[in-house]
Amino acid sequence: MRAGRGPLVVTGHGLWATSAPDSVLQIGHLPAGDLPALCGAATLVGYASRHEGFGLPPVEAMACGAPVVSTPVPAVVEVVGSGAATIAPGDVDGLTATLRELLDDDARRAALAERGRAAVTALSWEHTARGTVDVYRSLGLHA
Asked: DSSP readout, 58-122?
Protein backbone atom coordinates (compact mmCIF):
# COMPACT_ATOMS: atom_id res chain seq x y z
CA MET A 1 0.00 0.00 0.00
CA ARG A 2 1.28 3.43 -0.89
CA ALA A 3 1.21 6.40 1.50
CA GLY A 4 -1.18 9.22 0.77
CA ARG A 5 0.48 12.05 -1.06
CA GLY A 6 0.18 15.18 1.01
CA PRO A 7 2.17 18.35 0.46
CA LEU A 8 5.90 18.51 1.03
CA VAL A 9 6.21 21.02 3.87
CA VAL A 10 9.59 22.63 4.57
CA THR A 11 10.26 24.49 7.81
CA GLY A 12 13.33 26.45 8.79
CA HIS A 13 15.68 27.56 6.05
CA GLY A 14 17.09 25.65 3.10
CA LEU A 15 20.65 24.41 3.39
CA TRP A 16 21.15 22.66 0.08
CA ALA A 17 19.36 24.82 -2.43
CA THR A 18 18.18 28.36 -2.81
CA SER A 19 14.79 27.50 -4.28
CA ALA A 20 12.26 24.72 -4.19
CA PRO A 21 9.66 23.58 -6.72
CA ASP A 22 6.35 25.47 -6.63
CA SER A 23 4.65 22.36 -5.21
CA VAL A 24 6.71 22.63 -1.98
CA LEU A 25 5.05 24.48 0.88
CA GLN A 26 7.79 26.52 2.58
CA ILE A 27 6.55 27.83 5.93
CA GLY A 28 9.79 29.12 7.45
CA HIS A 29 10.58 28.89 11.13
CA LEU A 30 7.78 27.75 13.41
CA PRO A 31 7.30 28.37 17.11
CA ALA A 32 8.60 25.37 19.07
CA GLY A 33 5.11 24.70 20.39
CA ASP A 34 3.82 24.07 16.85
CA LEU A 35 6.41 21.45 15.91
CA PRO A 36 4.94 18.45 17.82
CA ALA A 37 1.64 18.76 15.96
CA LEU A 38 3.38 19.10 12.61
CA CYS A 39 5.73 16.16 13.31
CA GLY A 40 2.91 14.03 14.69
CA ALA A 41 0.88 14.55 11.52
CA ALA A 42 3.84 13.99 9.17
CA THR A 43 4.14 10.89 7.00
CA LEU A 44 7.91 11.34 7.17
CA VAL A 45 10.25 13.94 8.69
CA GLY A 46 13.51 14.92 7.01
CA TYR A 47 16.24 16.68 8.95
CA ALA A 48 19.00 17.96 6.70
CA SER A 49 21.58 19.45 9.06
CA ARG A 50 25.24 19.93 8.21
CA HIS A 51 26.25 20.88 11.76
CA GLU A 52 24.37 20.08 14.93
CA GLY A 53 24.91 20.63 18.62
CA PHE A 54 22.65 17.90 19.99
CA GLY A 55 20.10 16.66 17.47
CA LEU A 56 16.96 17.66 19.33
CA PRO A 57 14.70 18.20 16.26
CA PRO A 58 14.97 14.59 14.99
CA VAL A 59 14.60 13.28 18.56
CA GLU A 60 11.44 15.34 19.00
CA ALA A 61 10.07 14.09 15.67
CA MET A 62 10.76 10.47 16.69
CA ALA A 63 9.06 11.08 20.04
CA CYS A 64 5.99 12.25 18.09
CA GLY A 65 5.96 8.93 16.23
CA ALA A 66 7.28 10.24 12.91
CA PRO A 67 9.74 8.20 10.86
CA VAL A 68 12.88 10.32 10.40
CA VAL A 69 15.46 10.68 7.63
CA SER A 70 18.47 12.70 8.72
CA THR A 71 22.03 13.53 7.88
CA PRO A 72 24.56 11.48 9.89
CA VAL A 73 26.27 14.39 11.61
CA PRO A 74 27.90 13.07 14.82
CA ALA A 75 25.55 14.68 17.33
CA VAL A 76 22.48 13.37 15.50
CA VAL A 77 23.87 9.85 15.06
CA GLU A 78 24.72 9.73 18.76
CA VAL A 79 21.18 10.50 19.87
CA VAL A 80 19.08 8.82 17.17
CA GLY A 81 21.13 5.63 16.82
CA SER A 82 19.35 3.33 14.39
CA GLY A 83 16.11 5.25 14.93
CA ALA A 84 16.52 7.28 11.75
CA ALA A 85 17.51 6.56 8.18
CA THR A 86 20.50 8.66 7.14
CA ILE A 87 21.79 10.30 3.97
CA ALA A 88 24.99 12.28 3.42
CA PRO A 89 24.75 16.08 3.67
CA GLY A 90 24.19 17.56 0.22
CA ASP A 91 23.25 14.20 -1.38
CA VAL A 92 20.05 15.34 -3.04
CA ASP A 93 19.79 12.16 -5.16
CA GLY A 94 20.24 9.96 -2.07
CA LEU A 95 17.68 12.00 -0.16
CA THR A 96 15.20 11.77 -3.03
CA ALA A 97 15.68 8.00 -3.39
CA THR A 98 15.35 7.38 0.36
CA LEU A 99 12.24 9.52 0.63
CA ARG A 100 10.61 7.80 -2.36
CA GLU A 101 11.42 4.34 -0.98
CA LEU A 102 9.95 5.18 2.41
CA LEU A 103 6.88 6.92 1.01
CA ASP A 104 6.16 3.88 -1.18
CA ASP A 105 6.58 1.31 1.62
CA ASP A 106 4.20 1.64 4.57
CA ALA A 107 5.76 -1.32 6.42
CA ARG A 108 9.29 0.05 6.12
CA ARG A 109 8.13 3.50 7.20
CA ALA A 110 6.29 2.03 10.21
CA ALA A 111 9.36 -0.01 11.18
CA LEU A 112 11.51 3.13 11.02
CA ALA A 113 9.01 5.01 13.20
CA GLU A 114 9.07 2.15 15.74
CA ARG A 115 12.90 2.15 15.81
CA GLY A 116 12.72 5.91 16.40
CA ARG A 117 10.33 5.53 19.33
CA ALA A 118 12.62 2.84 20.82
CA ALA A 119 15.69 5.08 20.43
CA VAL A 120 13.90 7.95 22.17
CA THR A 121 12.98 5.83 25.19
CA ALA A 122 16.70 5.29 25.84
CA LEU A 123 17.19 9.05 26.27
CA SER A 124 16.63 10.89 29.52
CA TRP A 125 17.83 14.03 31.26
CA GLU A 126 19.23 11.85 34.04
CA HIS A 127 21.34 9.89 31.55
CA THR A 128 22.53 13.16 30.00
CA ALA A 129 23.45 14.63 33.39
CA ARG A 130 25.36 11.50 34.42
CA GLY A 131 27.25 11.51 31.13
CA THR A 132 28.16 15.16 31.59
CA VAL A 133 29.44 14.52 35.12
CA ASP A 134 31.48 11.57 33.82
CA VAL A 135 33.14 13.79 31.22
CA TYR A 136 34.00 16.42 33.85
CA ARG A 137 35.44 13.74 36.13
CA SER A 138 37.49 12.28 33.26
CA LEU A 139 39.05 15.75 32.94
CA GLY A 140 39.96 15.81 36.61
CA LEU A 141 37.16 18.11 37.67
CA HIS A 142 35.05 17.11 40.68
CA ALA A 143 31.70 18.41 41.78
From this structure: HHHHHHTT--EEE---HHHHHHHGGGEEE--TT-HHHHHHHHHHHHT-HHHHHHHHHHHHHHHHT
Nearest of 15, 7, 82 to residue 47 by alpha carbon: 15
The yes-or-no verdict on residue 82 having pLDDT over 80 is yes
* Cβ contact 55:75 at 8 Å: yes
Q: Which CATH class is domain 8-138?
A: alpha beta
Query: For 102-132, what is each residue's pLDDT tens digit?
Result: 989 999 999 999 999 999 988 888 888 888 8
Q: d(Cα 66, Cα 121) in Å, to the nearest integer?
A: 14
pLDDT digits (tens, 9 = 90+) for 94-104: 888 888 899 89
